[in-house]
Amino acid sequence: MSKKRIPHSIPISPTQQALLSQLPNISLVGLMGSGKSTVGRLLAATLNRPFFDSDEEIIHRTGASIPTIFEFEGEAGFREREAKMIQELSEKKQVIIATGGGAVLREDNRTALKKNSWVIYLSTTPEKLLVRTRFDRNRPLLQNPDPLGTLKKMHEIRHPLYSQVADIIVTTGSGQVVQVATHILEALTQKIAQAQGQPDTH
């Protein structure tokens, strides 16, 4: 997913803005490198909402990088911190949340997200994710001789969980960030309009 020339926000009509203002939290799920943080920031700017990245919040609170947390606490320790953060962020009102790729592994995280958010699943193939993440040393689960195999296994395990919790599924592929965010905004608008029996007006 291209990150070139990303605008600060996306122009939307007053009608669309009014409809989208009725939404609760919007939470983004998907594998690492699927674009959750980049798309989330653009959605937040467009909808004038606060943005939170669960991984970034953990880093800020602990003063340690994700690889460092994995090194000293293991994945289980990180998942405990992540669960507490997801619960805290989910209790906020009308925010945009980018979750970590493994957040859906815990049922309590899925329940919290589903209860207080409209959940968007950014779906991407393992092959495309490898291209985006291969030089990123902040991905501890990929620091092994077969990162593609790791991504494929993650996708096999997590795809059903992402799909289960998602209200909307968007295939990011090689599309630009603006296209993905625009697609999400249009899909959200359509779902709200249909629920209210209104015409789908952009």
From TrEMBL:
It catalyses: shikimate + ATP = 3-phosphoshikimate + ADP + H(+). Substrate binds at residues 55, 79, 101, 158. The gene is aroK. Its main location: cytoplasm. Belongs to the shikimate kinase family. The keyword Nucleotide-binding applies. One of its GO terms (molecular function) is shikimate kinase activity. Catalyzes the specific phosphorylation of the 3-hydroxyl group of shikimic acid using ATP as a cosubstrate. Its EC number is 2.7.1.71. Keywords: Amino-acid biosynthesis, Aromatic amino acid biosynthesis, ATP-binding, Cytoplasm, Kinase, Magnesium, Metal-binding, Nucleotide-binding, Transferase. InterPro entries: P-loop_NTPase, Shikimate/glucono_kinase, Shikimate_kinase/TSH1, Shikimate_kinase_CS. Binds 1 Mg(2+) ion per subunit. It comes from Hydromonas duriensis. Monomer. It is found in: Cytoplasm. ATP binds at residues 33-38, 139. This is Shikimate kinase. HAMAP family: Shikimate_kinase. It is an enzyme of class 2 (transferase). Mg(2+) binds at residue 37. Pathway: Metabolic intermediate biosynthesis; chorismate biosynthesis; chorismate from D-erythrose 4-phosphate and phosphoenolpyruvate: step 5/7.
